[in-house]
Structure of Alkaline phosphatase:
Amino acid sequence: MLRRYSRVAAVVAAVLAGTALIKPVSGPEKVRNIIFINGDGMAAAQREAARLYYAGFDGQLIMDSLPVSGQLTTSPHDPHSPITDSAAGASAWATGQKTFNGAVSVDVDGKPLPTLGAQAKAAGKATGLVTTAQVTDATPAAFFANTSNRYAQDDIARQYLQHSKPDVILGGGEDWWLPAGTPGAYPDQPAEDPAEGSRGSQGNLISAAQTQGYRYVSTPAQLAAARSGPVLGLFGNEELFQIASEGQGDKYDPPVSLATMTGKALDLLSGSRKGFFLVVEEEGIDEFAHYNNGARMLQALGEMEKTVRLVRAYAASHPGTLVVVTGDHETGGLVVEDPGTGDESGDGVSAEDGPFPVKGSDLTFNLDWTTGGHSGSDVPVTAIGPRSERFTGKHPNTYVHQVLLDALKG
Ligand SMILES: [Zn+2]
């Protein structure tokens, strides 16, 4: 009562002082949906290369046009390395704690930590993950599972079914859901990569998912026909693109695009009464950057941009949607260069790529690489929607967890 009186008194005082707001006083917009998008390996140089290539000197990527921007540092708490891998990076987002490389949402002693995926479920939200990597790869895994070993992808799949139960699971990695000898929809030892083949140690997890009520889809047509969740969609043995040395079979050709999978996930999750939490990842940026393959990396960045365009349009027509776009670390030690300069980093695997055209210009740029691994460069973070303003400034990657956990509370 006192509080109410005070507020009335404050409004009266404001009117008398001539400072009353024209609009009635209302609280900040509530967060209903959270869409978190990871460009794996995407830092400032990758975004600038994509801007020049897809938008030109005076253009802007949609992912860069989100109204709030900041920077994240990415270093892990690892006894052997100052540079993060995707597992420790995603664990920082998903749990708010720094950990060692290879760890999936466990602390430095290996103890499991609460994840945002589980916290979103506990808050009554539907949850989902979409990736061009294996659905059990480090980034999605950190949001929905706990393990000291990121490579135990069959155990991560089992945890999805038995514990975190995401309502939508779309991506690659069928090999980890089936035991050896059960090829599934994607044949073992395919010509383009004979190393692929079913290798799960947890039984037939696709059957287990179906028994549990998941609709299982493995083709674009089946995905298009799925009208309600939960849905498990696996569209390849491993990643949804082909990793190989440059010119020796490297291909970015997902059978279902990241934007298509994301659009379907949004359709399926939108029915949730209390909103949803969705993690989206473009993995090709990182993996092609590991191979210092500029042309393929730019293709993956183009798909990432298309996906952000779709998500931003969704947010514009669905009030209460917080969208966050960032990367888990930089990959390749990438520099955007004048094509006229020499190749300072040598001509081995790190040879410069290019020249690539700047859209709408006669000028071109080269992409030069300094490592086949990750680097410690900061990553940009851009955001739109309620609570997005909190991403302004420079923060450790663990800060993402703080903001998203608060956002889960509305
Ligand atoms: Zn990587």
Notes: The domain at 38-408 is CATH 3.40.720.10 (Alkaline Phosphatase, subunit A).
